[in-house]
Protein 1
Amino acid sequence: MIPRDLITGFLLLLETFIGLMGNLLLLILYMYIFLIQPRMKKPVDMIFTHLMLVNVLSIVFRLIPDVMASFAVRLPFHDVACKAVLYAYSVTRGLSICTTSLLSLFQAMTIRSNHSKWAWLKSKLESYIFPSLLFIWIINTFIYFPMVQNIKGQINFTVVASRYSQIYCQSSQVRYHSTMSIVTSLMIRDILFVLLMMWSSLYLVSVLFRHNRRTRHVHSFSVSLHASSEKKATHSILLLVGFFIFFYCSNTFVTFYLFYRPKNSPLLDMITRVLSSAYPIICPYVLMNNRKIISKFIFSLSNSECIFSTRGCYG
């Protein structure tokens, strides 16, 4: 094992630990609210919970194989295992795009429904969440089926500075029209959901701009308190979208460059690994910055202590 691979392995291991710690923490907090304190949950919490679960799966199926490869772990993948891992990572990557887009769109519709003309939409938004999540699962489950048929495991394992799909797995010869159909489907999905993400984000930015101008002349405490809560949530979602678009575009550019580059570049390959896993790692810490979920969890814990305490909170 060369020092470069060792350093890469430790960096990827650190990324894995940081990403799993943040996402699992928020996932546990959201599940606690859903199961123990359901009256405190909000409709958007279901989307946040789904995003944390997708992030955990994405880190597990992307970073852990890269860590094993960097430390020269000889783990020959047979066809079934190789297809399963690559398929799982591809699906979770697609779910990450769709869930972030859905989150941004849902926040835009929530703010829009605060207007009297769109008040009817507010009561129906929650009922649309589960069908929407089911829909994106169906899309991403079926769109990658043709791709995994062309993947097979490599029995002879050698440590090279390359991506996981080239270390443990290899692609068989595929027909031109089959490759183009897969690429076209993925491009249509990505463009559609990224455009929805950008449109809803631009709408949220415009709402925040109008809100800042209007609140200069409003001094009602209750109105400003509710607006402040919505404003913090909107800021967090906009920050998430900004990070996602940056890492997505950067990773796409570097990936295409590597694809058409005649020689392999270990540095660019390392950059690709970092970019492809950066969003799931940063995501929970962006949400924690809002501090609303943490304060909600602490408040629910204090309520539970009051309920189960023999003396009570005021005894």
Protein 2
Amino acid sequence: MSNLSADFRRHESAKSRLKDLLLQKDNQVCADCGAPDPKWASANIGVFICLKCSGVHRSLGTHISKVLSITLDEWSDDEIDAMIEVGGNGSANAIYEAFIPVGYTKPGPSASHEDRSKFIRSKYELQEFLKPSLRIVSNNSSKEPEEPSYFEEIVDSFRSSNSSKKSPQEGMVEFMGLLKVKVIKGTNLAVRDMKSSDPFITLTLGQQTAKTTVIKSNLNPVWNEELMLSVPQEYGPLKLQVFDHDIISANDLMGEAEIDLQPMITSAMAFGDAKMFENMQIGKWLKSDDNALIDDSAVVIVDGMVKQEMSLKLQNVESGEVYLELEWMPLDQ
């Protein structure tokens, strides 16, 4: 019993040190784009990041960047120790951004997904801005330390990922499940025609896009349509966009939102076969300043299915909300 109590105290101490690290000035903004109040971290790189950048990090694979929520995920003592060893965003960026070319501009909080993705891949996967002394690790060293240093482990993981690119199966995408999205309704949508709009919604995940039907002249449309998307092993956020259908000119954007799938998929994978459980809550996506949630969104098991209802306030537009219900369907069941 005393050992369990000691382990608990050590873990609580480690979590307290992680919170102290987050309070440092450099860690109060995203390491990659500078967005305030990051709620995510790359535990093996040692940086705090925002929701949008976390989606790109997740697409790199856990061998390069293991993304964890600061509030939703359970951290191991080793993961917390790794973050503290690095020292946070300032120390990590001093290494990973040591050789950014003169005149090169980092993406900002409002950067496009393409610009954000290009920078993050250049920074961590391709190591284009890394100190030269850390880009290559000799395989002939006679010194064999009992525990390799943190940065040696990272460089080793990069080297493994680079060699894997030579696989003959390069370019093939492996899927882990299906995502059924029920687009329920929109409310108070923006006017894009004379007095109303002809809205429809698109959902984009990776290279896939699905869209609803167009509803004519309605700022409070009810769709109740189900759209299906395949979820790859390396998934990023689900992007939702609302457009005003226009026959003559290009469709007008009526707002957008990004949906973090990690809380749902992580919870579903942890519980396994949902049919084995009674109705219960198994996870939650928390409302914050850097996401579009109107309220916290619970992940639940209902009648043997993993579902998540959410209400979203559309971004980059004067008004509008969208209401969805997500259902996770693993391929192995």
